[in-house]
Design brief:
The chain is α/β, with parallel strands linked by helices. It is 41% helix and 20% strand. The protein has helices at 13-25, 36-45, 62-70, 90-96, 108-119, and strands spanning 5-9, 29-33, 50-54, 80-84, 100-103.
């Protein structure tokens, strides 16, 4: 069985390193991007099963990245979870076109469970 591909987009290198390690440990195939432009290039190479996207990044903001991703035909239904250092209100999640939000710092077990449920992955 192929491992679910999770694209993590965050400008914080320690977060990318942590996420890569955690995702591998829990049976996912992580891909990482540190900018919106890198994320858009990455999805051209491979469609992920889920995208974890930092809300606040330099250059393209999280909302700009979501809009660009949703403009890609094959990505309209790919779940996007927003990563943020502050709580994200439900109306903001809806405005983003995201499936949900995860507040940093996060509980790893909760993060993995949310990824599994949104990516449609059975345990």
């Amino acid at each position: 069985m192929q491992k679910p591909v999770i694209l993590v987009v965050d400008d914080d290198v320690p977060i990318l390193t942590l996420m890569r390690t955690v995702l591998r440990e829990f049976g996912f195939e992580p891909r990482v991007a540190s900018t919106g432009a890198e994320a858009l290039a990455a999805v051209q190479e491979e469609t992920p099963d889920l995208i974890l996207l930092d809300k606040n990044m330099p250059g393209m903001s999280g909302s700009e990245v979501v809009r660009a991703l949703r403009d890609e035909a094959g990505l309209k239904k790919v779940p996007i979870l927003i990563l943020s250092g502050e709580p994200v209100a439900p109306d903001e999640i809806a405005r983003f076109g995201a499936a949900g939000a995860i507040t940093k710092p996060f509980d790893i077990a909760d993060l993995v469970e949310r990824i599994r449920s949104h990516a449609g992955v059975a345990r």
